[in-house]
Amino acid sequence: MSANDYLLTQEYFRKMSQESGFQIETQQFAEYLQNIDELKYIRQEFHYPKNKTLHGVDLNIINGEDECIYLCGNSLGLCPKSLRSIIDEEITKWQECGVQGHHYGKRPWEHIDAFVIDQTAALVGAKPIEVVSMDSLTTNLHLLMVPFYRPTLSRHKILFEEGCFPSDRALIESQICFHGYDPKTSMLQAAPREGEYLLRTEDILQLIHEQGDSIALILFSGVQYKTGQYFDLKAITEAGHHKGCKVGFDLAHAVGNVELKLHDWNVDFAAWCTYKYLNAGPGSIGGLFIHERYAYEKDLKRFSGWWGVEFKERFHMDNNNLPLIPGARGFTLSNPCVLAVVSLFSSLEIFHKVGIEKIIKKQRLLTGYLEYLIKYKFGSDINNSSNHSGIFISIITPENLTSRGSQLSLAFSCNGTEIFSELQRRGVVCDFRQPNVMRVAPAPLYNSFVDVHKFVSILTEVVMLLKK
Length: 468
Fold this sequence. Notes:
15 strands, four-stranded antiparallel β-sheet, alpha/beta, 36% helix, EC 3.7.1.3, seven-stranded mixed β-sheet, 468 residues, Kynureninase
C-alpha cells in the first residue's frame, strides 16, 4: 500500500473493512488488522511490561497479568529480549579474559564502535564514513558546534524552532555566550503563526531568505518533540546553504522513526540519542553524522581525543601529531562504553532484519488508525463523529503522513491532566506535556492495532467517567 497521505490511509481502512466485514471502529477490525500485519511477530522480540509491574496502576480496576498499553516509545523504547544475552557475553569475557577482551572474542573491545556503524548509517541515509556512535546527544552537539558554529560580527545568529527541547535551547544559548555574543541578538527563533501549533515550511524558508546573511548556523529538530512535526530537512538544508549557512539537526525523535537521507540532502551535521525509537536503553550512547565532504578537510576545527586517531597509530604512545580517522570517527574522544554499544547493537539487529521501509509503512497505518479513532470518538465534525462526551480532542500533529512519525500529540478541550492520571491508573503508558498536550506514540516494532484500539477505548471510558 502506498500510504502517502491521510486520505489514502483511510481508503485502505475502508477497503479492509469491506474485506473483513467489520466496522473500522470495532475491536474485531483492530484484531483483523493485527492478524494480517506482517510485522506482528516482532513484538515477541521485546519485553513488554505487564500492568502489575508498573507504578501508579490500580489493580482493583484492571488485571495485573495483562500487558499494559505502552505508547511511549518516543520517550523510551522497550527492551529487546536479545539484550541480556549479548551483555552477558561481554561481562563473561571480562570475567574470564580481563584486559585481553580488548583484542579477542566475537566483538573485540578495541573495535567495538565499528560493530554498529553500517546499520546506523543505513538508518540515517549516510555512508559509513559519515557516522559514529559516541557520548551523548547534547555532548555531541556541543562537539559539532566547534567546526560548524564559527560566528563573525556580520554572521553570528543561530536559527532554531521556538519551543525546541530545553537542552537544545540551553546548548544554543551557551554556545553563543561562549563566543562572546549576546543571546538576545544572536538567537533567532522560527515560531508558528498566531493560533497555530505547527511551523509552516514556507515560513521557515522565508525567514532563512530574509535573515540568512546574518545566520551562521541553522539547528532544527528533525521531529519536534511536543507536536510530532517532521520538518522538511531537505528544503531547510537547501535554503540554508543557498544563503551560506551551516545546517545541522537534532534527530532525537527522528532516528529510527522517519525516513532520513542525510547524505543525499547534503546536511552538514546531525546528532541523536538511541534510547527512544532505537530501543538501546535509558541514557544509552549517542550518535552523530558529519557529511563526507568534510572527511578529509585537515583544517576543520574540532576537539580531538586519542580514540579518533587511526587505529594502527593509536597505541604508539609517542605523543607525535598523529593522523585522525577520516570522517565522523575522527571526532571520537575516548573509547566508548562497551555495554552501551552492544545495547545499541541488539536493537539495530532487529531494525536490520525488518528494514526501515516496512517499519515506516506500519507506522503510518498505526498512526492513521489512531487518528481515525480519535476523530471518530472525539471529533467536532458531527457528520463523521460519534462524540457523545462533549469533550473534544484535536490532533496537533500534521495530518500528512510524510510530515510526522510514530507520535500523535493530542490537545484537549478540557484540562487533560486528570484524564492522563486516570489513564495511568488503567495501565496506559504515554506522557503529558504542559500546558495541555498528551503525546501518544504507537511504535511499529512492538505496538499493535489492538493496542491502539484499547487505548482509545480506555480513553473513552475515562472521559465519560470524568464527565459524570
